[in-house]
């Protein structure tokens, strides 16, 4: 399986609290678009959501 790093809008504005930022889905909107454009087969918002075996 190939890994692709996707930087979201939220990743670029870490110095602001979420309560001050307008809009919903700041972390997942880009992930949804990548899936809809068939650029990946699966995405995850947090790496802790995936089980990984280190070899």
UniProtKB/TrEMBL annotation:
Q: In which pathway does it act?
A: Porphyrin-containing compound metabolism; protoporphyrin-IX biosynthesis; coproporphyrinogen-III from 5-aminolevulinate: step 2/4
Q: Which residues form the Porphobilinogen deaminase N-terminal domain?
A: 4-53
**What GO biological process terms does the UniProt entry carry, in alphabetical order?**
protoporphyrinogen IX biosynthetic process
- List the catalysed reactions: 4 porphobilinogen + H2O = hydroxymethylbilane + 4 NH4(+)
Q: Which Gene3D superfamilies match?
A: Periplasmic binding protein-like II
Output one GO MF annotation: hydroxymethylbilane synthase activity
Recorded hits in InterPro entries, A to Z, give:
HemC, Porphobilin_deaminase_N
Query: Function, please?
Result: Tetrapolymerization of the monopyrrole PBG into the hydroxymethylbilane pre-uroporphyrinogen in several discrete steps.
Question: What's the name of the protein?
Answer: Hydroxymethylbilane synthase
Which species? Answer: Buchnera aphidicola
């Amino acid at each position: 399986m190939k890994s692709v790093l996707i930087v979201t809008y939220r990743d670029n504005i870490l110095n602001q609290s979420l309560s001050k930022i307008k809009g919903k889905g700041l972390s997942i909107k880009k992930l949804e678009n990548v899936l809809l454009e068939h650029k990946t087969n699966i995405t995850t918002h947090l790496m802790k959501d995936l089980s990984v075996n280190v070899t």
